[in-house]
Amino acid sequence: MAFQMTVRYTKLWKMLIDRDIQRNEFRRAINLSSSTYQKLLQNQFVSMEVIARICAYLYCDVGDVMEMVPTANEISNLG
User: Fold this and answer.
1) Which of 35, 46, 65, 66 is the most exposed place for a label (fewest CB within 10 A)?
2) What was the pLDDT predicted at 2?
3) Would you say 54 and 64 are in contact if contact means Cβ atoms under 8 Å apart?
4) Max alpha carbon distance in the chain (Å)?
5) Range 49-58 average pLDDT
């Protein structure tokens, strides 16, 4: 049985706030489609190309904008 993980972009949104970057400005700067932007808002997986563009724009590492966390099922199985 494979261990399942999901993604969170909480660090990305916090970084934008800390750097005083508006979300619309961010979206335009890295040329995000509306569907990809929605995926980020809903903590869904996006392509590594998108993550690379985000990191290049913010001059940071992948771990600075996202984190992988166990799914709810995996957490309940640990206990």
Assistant:
1) 35
2) 67
3) no
4) 43
5) 97
- Write down the mean pLDDT value for the chain: 91
Task: Give me the residue spans of the domains in the chain.
Answer: 5-78
- What CATH code would you report for 5-78? 1.10.260.40
Whole-angstrom distance between the N-terminal and C-terminal Cα of the chain?
17
pTM for the structure as a whole: 0.85
Going by C-beta distance under 8 Å and a sequence separation of 6 or more, which residues neighbour residue 40?
Answer: 9, 12, 32, 46
Tokens matching residue 4:
């399942």
Statement: residue 78 has pLDDT above 70: no
